[in-house]
Design brief:
By secondary structure, the protein is mainly α. 59% of the residues lie in helices and 11% in strands. It has helices at 10-20, 26-32, 43-55, 79-89, 100-108, 115-142, 150-176; strands spanning 24-25, 59-66, 69-77. Helix 5 packs antiparallel against helix 6 (115-142) and helix 6 (115-142) packs antiparallel against helix 7. The longest helix is centred in the C-terminal third of the chain and has 28 residues, at 115-142. It is elongated. The model is unreliable at 1-6 (pLDDT under 50).
Length: 180
């Protein structure tokens, strides 16, 4: 089952990829998540996600005794969790292609993603950027030439430039997309 939260699928990808390297407790998992957005992972996102993972059979939870402290939960990925991670990495649904972080996370795992999926991920982001560029162009065309709109025009031109820069960068990714 896919859970798209306000954090999208990014947290699922990070958590499952970290668990794939070995069992960890929640605090360690939280510490090891390094998001491209630099947004910290909160306990309010992490622990409900781990509960969902456990219910869905993506992870197992075991108690680890600690001297002088309550037992802590240690999570390990299952085969179903590894498969879920593969599914998440290999797709960028149109509904989240607008998220730069969702896109960048997948690019960060391109060495594990088949070429056809890499190209589909790139195409999804390109489609979003082209649509955004067209919307901004419409907004720019609709601005009346007046002193009151000069700042909006500057902002919109910056947005156009940002989109164009990303489109250029993505074109280089498309050239380099290779099978793992």
């Amino acid at each position: 089952m896919t859970y798209v939260t306000m954090d999208g699928m990014v947290l699922e990808i990070f958590a499952l990829s970290i668990l794939r390297t070995g069992a960890v407790h929640g605090y360690e998992l939280k510490r090891r998540v390094q998001r491209p957005s630099l947004t910290a992972l909160s306990n309010n996102s992490l622990y409900p996600m781990l509960r969902r993972f456990e219910i869905d059979g993506l992870v197992t939870k075991a108690k680890e005794p600690q001297e002088g402290k309550p037992d802590r939960n240690v999570y390990a990925i299952t085969d179903a969790g590894v498969e879920r991670l593969r599914e998440l990495l290999c797709t960028l649904p149109p509904g989240i292609a607008s998220s730069e972080e969702e896109f960048l996370v997948r690019v960060g795992f391109f060495q594990e993603i088949p070429e056809a999926n890499q190209r589909a991920i790139i195409a999804a982001r390109e489609a979003y950027l082209a649509s955004s560029r067209a919307r901004v162009a419409e907004l720019l065309a609709g601005l009346a030439a007046s002193r009151k709109s000069q700042w909006r025009e500057r902002v919109l031109n910056h947005v156009v430039e940002t989109i164009e820069n990303e489109q250029t960068w993505i074109a280089t990714l498309a050239e380099k997309a290779v099978s793992p």
